[in-house]
TrEMBL record:
Protein name, entry field: Transposon Tn10 TetC protein
Ribonucleoprotein is among the record's keywords: no
Residue ranges constituting the HTH tetR-type domain according to the UniProt record: 10-70
Lineage: Bacteria, Pseudomonadati, Pseudomonadota, Betaproteobacteria, Burkholderiales
Keyword Ribonucleoprotein: no
UniProt gene name: tetC
InterPro entries: Homeodomain-like_sf (IPR009057), HTH-type_TetR-like_transc_reg (IPR050109), HTH_TetR (IPR001647), Rv0078-like_C (IPR049484)
GO MF, one example: transcription cis-regulatory region binding
DNA-binding region positions on the chain: 33-52
Length: 194
């Protein structure tokens, strides 16, 4: 049975995304040519331009894919936690640990920031809303003092983001991750209701 046009488009997009993701992780955005990943995908530059507008658009799509996977992983961490406080703590810790993963480090925290700039407002709003809802649960369980969840979410999210960028610049000995996790525990303990 012949494939539909939509299936062919999705297959082409998936091939380009997979090839670019491998290339960006291994060599980085700057050192990867469009010919490298179009050849690896068995496609042409025309397909790349048609589906993503160019190399930068393909990077944005790869980052969006990885961000979605990170969100799923963080949601799973929260879901496994026995209470909202533990969900908050483990979710924050997991985010910082992801910053040390080679693919996330290079593609999301280094190349995307350099090439694409700050995360789109919609992504930031989604992240802040999710964190704010979790903080509301923590407050409802009386684990922390009451505060405006949106304000607290911005403070925590900003701290996590800057720490993640700092971890991503680590010369791979892992000391920054360990330091950030220790500092995170200190910061979160300061929120606990006595």
């Amino acid at each position: 049975m012949p494939r539909s046009r939509a299936e062919m488009i999705e297959t082409t997009r998936a091939k380009l995304l997979a090839a670019a993701r491998r290339a960006f992780q291994q060599a980085g955005y700057a050192a990867t040519s469009m010919d490298d990943f179009t050849a690896a995908a068995g496609l042409t530059r025309g397909a790349l331009y048609h589906h993503f507008g160019g190399k930068q658009g393909l990077l944005a799509a790869v980052v969006e894919q990885i961000d979605g996977e990170m969100d799923q992983r963080l949601d799973a961490v929260s879901a496994r936690a026995p209470d909202a406080w533990t969900a908050l703590r483990e979710r924050c810790r997991a985010y910082l640990q992801m910053a040390a993963e080679p693919e996330i480090r290079r593609i999301v925290l280094q190349d995307a920031r350099a090439v694409l700039g700050p995360a789109p407002d919609a992504d930031q709003r989604r992240c802040l809303a999710s964190l704010g809802a979790l903080l509301r649960r923590v407050m409802d369980e009386n684990a922390i003092e009451g505060a405006a969840p949106s304000a607290l979410a911005r403070l925590i999210s900003g701290s996590l983001s800057e720490s993640a960028f700092w971890i991503a610049e680590d010369p791979e000995d892992g000391s920054r991750l360990a330091q950030a996790l220790q500092a995170l525990d200190l910061l979160l303990r300061g929120l606990r209701r006595q």
